[in-house]
Amino acid sequence: MESLPLTVNGKLNTRALPAPEYQDADQYRAPANAVEELLTGIYAQVLGVERVGVDDSFFDLGGDSISSMQVVARARAAGLVCRPRDIFVEQTVSRLAQVVTLADGESGVADTGVGPVVATPIMRWLYSLDGPIDEFNQTVVLQVPAEVTEADVIAVLQAVLDHHAMLRLRVADAENGDLTVPEPGSVDACDCLCTVGELTADTLAAVRAQLNPATGSMLTAAWVPETRQLALMIHHLAVDAVSWRILLEDLNIAWAQHRSGQPVVLPTPGTSFGRWSRLLDQHARTADVLATADVWRTVAAAPAALPAPQPDTDVYANAGQLSASLDVETTGQLLGDVPAAFHAGVQDILLIAFGLAWSEYLGSEQGSIGIDVEGHGRTEELFGDADLSRTVGWFTSKYPVALDFDRNTGGISWEQVVNGDAALGAVIKKAKEQLRSVPDGLTYGLLRYLNPDVELDNPDPTIGFNYLGRLGAGAADLSDDLWRLDPDAVSLTAAGGRVNTPLGHTVELNAGTMDTEAGPQLQATWTWAPSALDEEQIQKVSKLWSDALAGICAHVRSGGGGLTPSDVAPARLSQQQIDDLTAQFDMVDVLPLTPLQHGLLFHTGLSQDSEDLYAVQLDISVSGRLDVERMRDAVQTVITRRPNVVAHFYEDFGEPVQILPANPELAWQYVDLSGRSDIDAQIAQISAAERAAVCRLGDQPPFRAAVLRTGEETYRFVLTNHHIVLDGWSKPILLQEIFVSYFGQRLPAPVPYRRFVSWLAEQDNDAARAAWRGVFSGFETPTLVGTPGLALGRRAVESFQVSAETTQALGELARSCHTTVSTVLQGAWAQVLMWLTGQPDVAFGTAVSGRPTDVPGADSMVGLLINTVPVRATITPETTVASLMNQLQGAYTDTLDHQHLALNEIHRATGHDQLFDTVFVYENYPIDTAALLGVQELSITDFTNREYNHYPLSVQAVPGHELGLRVEYDTNVFDRQRIKRLVNRLQRVLVAMTADMREKS
């Protein structure tokens, strides 16, 4: 189906669905709509795989940060807008498809890039080298189609020169920031190209000599008509590894258009390098960047592992070079299984093995090993409207890391590393956490080179590491009609870089994953300073690195891997605590408790000897031919998607945590009660047992399901949960997913509960406390209707209806006051509390959904997101309905961004132990039973929802043709007659409020 049919309420219309087709959820799932089809095709192209299912993880398929930018660029070309961060967060096509937007042609900030350019950190680093840099370049050799002529080459190069601003960069005075980009057309492709008979090192040297940043000669090329080879040399100031991917695509687009006689129109480049450089210059002085300075000082203080290169003699022209490669099988593991096992990136694993190799080579005396790491530097999320997916330039970030493997204090032996011993896991995890503790690498360069107020001048580490990601992915489907990299010209590419620029490191490793006919293969090039090392030494280190990588793969094959503290943040757990949990539980994640969950866990602990108030039970009467096993499978499908619903709450550490199982098990029972005379008693007994079970959070799952057969085609479907895992807004979502799964229909990818918990931990609680303190300024007497210290009594519920006429009038009143019916009802409840307590300044609690709009997918999350917050109303003889509405609406607006703050924190901020003991809730999440079931198969004849709380008085308003009022109360505080009087008072207040507004209108 192209789309799911919906009811007028936006719910799934199962009556309009076709007959279900069942399939194994573990099998490949094909795209279900045009967006998913586009994205699966793009994933396959970029990652060089034959087929991608919508549930396949981008990173399990071998993706990395650089290839994520390729996905973004190709998606943009197909009319879909997303960011690399979206791919990191969503990972699968099914989830990414929910957050991509359609390109409108004007999204983001695009510009020509003409004008001044601020020298970026990497540019300033280059100009800090003590030696010539005019010929410092990157070289590629292309094989072009047979019919291409010199005139065609010039036309295509001209299109690319005019389109990409940095290819026209002029550097008059880099030290004083005199960098500029002239208008398109200012560089003539004819002047950049020379025709030669053969590509040799000498030929390339002559062509390379034409590079001159001062005059704007950033690109030069050599064309060999006989072999149809084109050598492109671009000064490194204007290009990086990501840029070459963009340029190769644009060369082919330009060629295709030029060959067919069309005007060359290349895809919009997005944010220019010039604008990006100015944004970085401003960002370097922000508080967030300055806050990283001390961390960088500590990291950069690691002692040099090797002697520094000598700038006069150790230059790229005479540097030692060694190439090495891993086998395809090991490479495949390093791209998929290994990083997945350790919840890390491919670069993390390669870098950790690199550090292990150097630790072994340098010996036990070497403590922390400093390594200079290069990153792609295209951190778009720093600036909301930036789009660098098709921008050519040198964006590279360069920053130090320090790895300490404790080899001198009883660490594991090298034999254990090579064999993938169990002890290797702890070493990898510790190193991963050291890498995670380093701030965004871009900030190091910003502080060192763009912020004169920060002293960060330690020498760069003498060892360098650069992982270029997937290179040539998707190239297998390129035909001879396209311009492509020449696989036989590796030596020529290396010769192009033989310049007299000083080496930046004593040893540097540049690695990338190349697509070969046999599959992806990790290839590496070692470059070293002859004054410090020789080839034999580098061969030894290279062998150590490959042995370490093989050992890590062996460790994972034997079951190694696992979570580390950074994976479970914001939960505050040590590695030892995580390992202890791993030994006890088969877990996929660990989360901290939300503030409300903390409170519910506390109340559950207090009520161990009695039925927990917070056991919630939904009892649905179903008639028809219910397939019990299908229903069980449907519920299992949903909890597998939503493991937080069956989380285990663990309290043995300082702070309780919730453990999400890797393979959730459904607590399920089916009981056939048909033919029994005591069916109602049996149902009550089973239901009570289910409620008791979910309250044993220490040893029982907090969610259970049961089907009770009461007749030939009549059933009771009972869902029971502790409130600690589900709120009222989640229940309709959960039910809809169960029945959609029951009828064999496809479910959208779930939004993980972790996203909300992480968001909650990032909020500014100081600002929230200040906001609530302001709203309750001058509030003196808490609004309490119960007796302090009185034990909780039996809960009772009374239900009432507000007439249709008054219900309609309440809606009109809300519209006339430019507010909501919920606010009107809160105003009425405030007046009832004033009558009940005799206080003119009253407070009561209300439930808020807790689903922030700035958390993608929050409206479809399942879990406990709600919060209880106070509402204050001050009523005097002069207070009118309109002024009361304005008062309530104003307080709501003032605290709207702070509704996440825990109630106990609000109490502390306002200076009170307790503000209220009554709650008024407007339920706007009714369960649409008609939309849940398929026509002529099942029908819901009745359902009841049992849900209580610990407050002595709660009122729940349920929208409808006649507004419903559900009053829950503590029988130790109120009796039935008093509740009736209270509701009568509320009804009279509602009528009076609507009448007052009618008179005034």
TrEMBL record:
<dbReference type="GO" id="GO:0003824">
    <property type="term" value="F:catalytic activity"/>
</dbReference>
<feature type="domain" description="Carrier">
    <location>
        <begin position="30"/>
        <end position="104"/>
    </location>
</feature>
<dbReference type="InterPro" id="IPR006162">
    <property type="entry name" value="Ppantetheine_attach_site"/>
</dbReference>
<dbReference type="InterPro" id="IPR009081">
    <property type="entry name" value="PP-bd_ACP"/>
</dbReference>
<keyword id="KW-0596">Phosphopantetheine</keyword>
<dbReference type="GO" id="GO:0008610">
    <property type="term" value="P:lipid biosynthetic process"/>
</dbReference>
<dbReference type="InterPro" id="IPR036736">
    <property type="entry name" value="ACP-like_sf"/>
</dbReference>
<dbReference type="Pfam" id="PF00668">
    <property type="entry name" value="Condensation"/>
</dbReference>
<dbReference type="Pfam" id="PF00550">
    <property type="entry name" value="PP-binding"/>
</dbReference>
<dbReference type="InterPro" id="IPR001242">
    <property type="entry name" value="Condensation_dom"/>
</dbReference>
<keyword id="KW-0597">Phosphoprotein</keyword>
<dbReference type="InterPro" id="IPR010060">
    <property type="entry name" value="NRPS_synth"/>
</dbReference>
<dbReference type="InterPro" id="IPR023213">
    <property type="entry name" value="CAT-like_dom_sf"/>
</dbReference>
<protein>
    <submittedName>
        <fullName>Non-ribosomal peptide synthase</fullName>
    </submittedName>
</protein>
